[in-house]
Amino acid sequence: MKKNGYKKTACLGAAALILTVGVSTGRALAYFTTYASASGGATLDLGSTTTVPDETFDETTWTKHVTIRNTGAYDCYVRARAYAGSSYELEYPAADGWTRQADGYWYYDQILPAGEETAELLVRIQRPEAAAEEFNVIVVQEHTAVCYREDGTPYADWNLKAGQTEETLGGEG
Amino acid sequence: MMKKRKSFWAKPVLLFSASAVLLVMSTVGSTRAALQYTSDAYELQVSVSSIGVSLLEGEGDQAKVVSHRDYAGTDWSGTGESGQLLEGRFGEDERLVPGKVYDEVLSVENSGEIDSYVRVILTRSWKDDRGKDTTLSPELIGLGLAEDGWVEDTRSAGSEERIILYATRPLAPGEVRTFCRTLRLDPSIMSEVRTEETPVSGGTLVTTSYRYNGYHFDLEAEVNAVQTHNAEDAIRSAWGVDVSVGADGSLSLR
């Protein structure tokens, strides 16, 4: 019986010692630290601009006068091309400010600012001698947003094209 | 029988009393020492090491402190929170354009009086009116990080949102070290689109809207500082990471 009493005494004594040491250890583990933080950001306003083609057809010369107006709030690049049936060949007699590339599209050389209009792109339709059936000439125009390289140089990425319209001119030959 | 029960409880009570006295005495000892320092008869100047850190935005003379927390002898100066980044940067005059590189120079300054090791935690996210949207990629918020003087901890970052940088050398009092130089939203943001076709007179209008349009990108920067004395233990205790500190003070991640 007395042996058990000593054991209890020893255990309680050890517990009291651990408690006392624990209090001191807490102080020893305090280190000097500090911090500072800040945050911020901005809202991404990509919008989606709209371009509208304006086409007039001169019946005396069988020429379409195509311009494209940026009616949205953001600058963009534009390109256009025309399609016709195999009997109707198309020519582009005047294209100041436009450059034709291998894919058949005419690319407007400048960024088209919001609210501005391109120079005219003329599309002349070669009327065949014996044209009798109905025909369609389709003008497709597309726009894409202005992208920037790391050095700030703007460029057009036509894989990201943002919008397009197709205008069809119908008539009888 | 009664005598036996009394002796069983007497010893534990005695021992608990003894331990309580020990605890109380340890407190009293400290209090007595403090009283001696402030007594009228003897004046003692106690010099306490003062730690401090500041987060700076901008470069050179244009740099401004956006947040700081320094120990000023008896109390803390600065809250260390509520700093504002990119304040007034994008507004009516300049629209945020994906792909374009913007200067965003962020630095940490040791604004204390002792050498300190520092680390930086950068957190990037997208938010809308409903809060954070974790389906959008924080990696598209590109940061041009400084390469010299920092090591990135990719293991502890835990997600694409967080970037954790450790200064490879301690900062001396007054020393400034830049950890970020530029901000650039990845232009592939513009390839995430939804397309809508609308019949119009004589044709079809195809309108494309951007998935990221209207989202707010958020950048949070937190800088932490810790003492250089007993640095490995201090960093493990304060930041929860294991580092090795060389004899020359250089820090590397384990």
Q: Notable features of this structure?
A:
heterodimer, A: 173 residues, Immunoglobulin-like, six-stranded antiparallel β-sheet, four-stranded antiparallel β-sheet, 46% strand, B: 254 residues, alpha+beta, five-stranded antiparallel β-sheet, elongated
Protein described:
The complex is a heterodimer of chains A (173) and B (254). Chain A is of the alpha+beta class and 173 residues long. Chain A has one helix spanning 2-28; strands at residues 33-43, 51-58, 63-70, 76-84, 89-91, 98-100, 106-108, 121-126, 134-148, 154-156, 163-172. Chain A has a single domain, classed as Immunoglobulin-like (Sandwich). Chain A contains 1 helix and 11 strands. The longest helix of chain A has 27 residues, at 2-28. Chain B has helices spanning 2-37, 154-157, 231-239, and strands at residues 52-57, 64-71, 76-77, 83-84, 102-109, 116-128, 131-132, 141-145, 150-152, 162-167, 176-185, 193-200, 203-210, 216-227, 243-245, 251-253. The longest helix of chain B is centred in the first third of the chain and has 36 residues, at 2-37. Chain B is elongated and about 105 Å long. Chain B starts with a helix and ends with a strand. Chains A and B meet through helix 1, strand 1, strand 9 and strand 11 of A and helix 1, strand 1, strand 2, strand 4 and strand 13 of B. Strand 11 (163-172) of chain A pairs antiparallel with strand 13 of chain B, so a sheet runs across the interface.
Concise overview:
The complex is a heterodimer of chains A (173) and B (254). With 173 residues, chain A is α+β, with helices and mostly antiparallel strands.
Individual helix count of chain B:
3
Give the strand line-up of the largest sheet of chain B: 3-2-1-5-11-8
| Mean residue pLDDT of chain A | 80
Rg of chain A to the nearest angstrom?
38 Å
Structural class of chain A: alpha+beta
Q: How large is the count of helical segments of chain A?
A: 1
CATH architecture of chain A: Sandwich
CATH C-level class of chain A: Mainly Beta
Kindly estimate the percentage of residues of chain A that lie in beta strands according to DSSP.
Answer: over 45%
Name the helix and strand elements of chain A from N-terminus to C-terminus, one letter apiece: HEEEEEEEEEEE
